[in-house]
Amino acid sequence: MPCQFDWLQGHLRLALLPAQRTSFAGPLESSCEIANCQMHMNSLKPILPKKQKTPSFQLSARGHWSTWPAFASGQTVLKSHKPCCAPGERMSSNKQALLTIPKPRYLEQLESYLRKELQYLDLTKRNSQELRLQPYREIFEFFIDNFKTYKPLLSAIKNEYEATLAHQKETIHALEPLKAMVATVSEECSQQILALQEKEKVEINMLKQEKQHLLKFIDNMKEEKSSLQTQVEHLQTSVAEEYARYLNEYGARKLLLAKLNDMHNEQLNMKRHQVQDVKGEDVVKLTLALKIARQDLTKAQLKLNAMIADYGDVVPRRDFESLEKKYSDLQQEMETLRKDFDQLRKEYQTLLEIQRETAEERDNFFTELQQAQRSCTPRPNWAKCSEVIPGGADRWGCLAEGKTSDQLVDVLLEEIGTGLLQEMNVFPGWTGKRPVLPEFFLSYLQRKYGDTSAMEWSYTLYENMRLCPSNHVMSSFYDILTGKVGEEQYHIQNQLISNLQKELAACDPSNSGSLTSEQFRMAMREAFPLKRQDSIQELIDASRYKLDCTEELIDYKSLFKEDEEGNPEPFVAKIRSQYIREKQEYLRELRNNLGDLMQVNAEDLKAAFCTIDPDIDDQTLDTYVGLAYQVGREQTDQEVVPVDTALERLLAGDVRRVGPAAREESKTDCVEE
Question: Are residues 543 and 411 in the same domain?
Fold first, then answer.
C-alpha cells in the first residue's frame, strides 16, 4: 500500500498541475471569493477519529492550491528568469529554489497522522500486518473524499485491491488444512521409510554375507586354477625334458644305425672290391657314389637338428587336450553353480516375501486374539483383596502398584503362604541326593547355628522361598537349591546385565544418564548381537514403560534399580525371561534335529549341535556334551542316555547359541506367543 500511495500521489500532482494554472493561476478578485473557496475546501475534509483532527488544504498567498513540488518548479522559473543568463545557470537556480520551498501543510498533516497511528499499533500480534494496513487505508480514503474528480477511479482501485486481498485471505485459509495434512503425510512417510530401512538392513547383511562367501569361493577357484596352471607348467617342463631325452636317444639310435650302415656298406664295399678285383669294376665310380651318400647324410642331420631346436618345447597334443577338457569341465561346473545360486537367491527372496506376509497375518491374528481376550475375559476386582490382607487398603496399594494380574496372583499367594507358615511348628523332612550347593548351604547352617538349629533354619528358609515365587532373589535361590537350574545360569544372567550397562555407559560419554531411542537401540544391538529384531523391540518397549509416548530420552540408569526386596525393574526381568526363552528355543531346535531318536550318544549330539549352530567351537561343544551326560570328557564316548534326560540337563545349565541362526530371518514369533 505505501508504494501504491506514492504512485497515486505523483499522478494526483500531475493531474492538479494544469488545473491550478487554469482555475487558480491569478489572484482572487475579492475577499468573498477567497472565503467561498476556503469554505469549499473545508467541505472536502474527511472525517477522522476524535483523537486527531482532519488535515486541511493550504492555499498559497496568491490564491491557488499548493501541489508541491510541481507548483514550486513553475513559480521558481517565473521569479528567477533572467533573459541574459545561460541555460545552465537558470537550471541551477531553479534547483536551489526548489529545495528551499517547504512541503504543503496537508501533506505534512497526513504524514504526521500516519506516524502517530503506526505508533499506537501493537505489532506483536499475529495480525500486525492487517493493523498496519488500516492507517494507510484511512489516508487513501482521505484522498478519495477530497479529490471528487478522481473519486470514482480511486474508489474502483481501492475496491479491486480489497477484493484481491479478501480472495487471497480465503485462499490462505483454504490451504491451511492442506498444509497440516501434508505435514502429517510427510511424517507418516518418514516413519514408513525408516521401518523399511530397518527391514532391509537385515536383508542387506545377509546378502553381504553371501557376497563374502561367494568371493571366498571365487578366490578358492582362482587358487585352484593357479595350482592347475603350475601343474601344467611342471608337466610341460617334464614333457620337454622327456622329449629332449627321447630326441637324444633317437639321434643316438640314428647315429648307431648310421654306423651300422657304414659298417655294412664297408663290408659290401669290401665284397664289391673283391668282386671288382675279380670282375675288374671301376673304383672311381664307387668313390664318387660314397661321397654323394655322405653329403646326403650331412643334409639330413642338419635338418634333424633344426627340427629339434624348433619343436623342443612343444607340449604333446594328448596332454594339451586333456588339460583343456578339464578346464572346460571346471568352467561348466562354475556356470552351473552360478545358475543354482541365482535360483536359490530368487527362492530366498520369495521366501522372504512369504515370511513378511505370514508375519503380517500373524500380527493381525494376535491383535484379534488380544481384543477377544479383553472382551471375553472378565477383569478381577483386586480391590477386594485389601479386605483380607493385613494392613488394609494402604498395604495392598503398595503391594499391587505397577504389577500385572499374574504378579498380583503371586503376591496374594505369598501373603496366604506366609500366614500358613506362621501357624506351622513342624515341617516334613526331605530326603534324597542333593547337589553341591544344598550340601554347602546345610554345612554353612550347621557351622553357624549347630546341627539342631541348622535343620530348622533350612526348612524354614525352604518353605519361605517356596511360598514367595514373585521375589526374584528367593525364587532363583530356590530353583538352584532344588536343582531345577544350575548356579552358572544365575551368574551368566548377571554378566549379561553387566555387559549391557557397560555398552550403555559407552554410548553416554557425558554421563548424563539418558540416551535417545536410537542410541539405546545401538547399545542393545552391540550388547546382544544374536537377538532378533522383535526381541530388541520388546526390550525397548520395556524401557519406556514409565515414559510418555512423546518423550524421547530414556533414563537407562533407572532401568537397573531394585526395590527393597531385591526385585528388578521390568526391563531387567524382560532380559532374564528372554534368556530362558531363547535357551528353550535353542533346545527345541536340537530336539527337532535329533528326530525320532529315543537315546543319543555323544557323537550324534555333537553333530546335532553343529547342524543347528555351525559357529560353535570345540570347547563349548565339549562343555555342552559333558553337561548332557554329567561325566568327564573322556567318558562321553561310551555313554548313551535318553534324549529327554539330556535335554533336561541342558535346560538346567548355561546353554546358549554361539553364532547366528542359519534361517533366523524366516522365523516367526508364533512359538514365543
Answer: yes
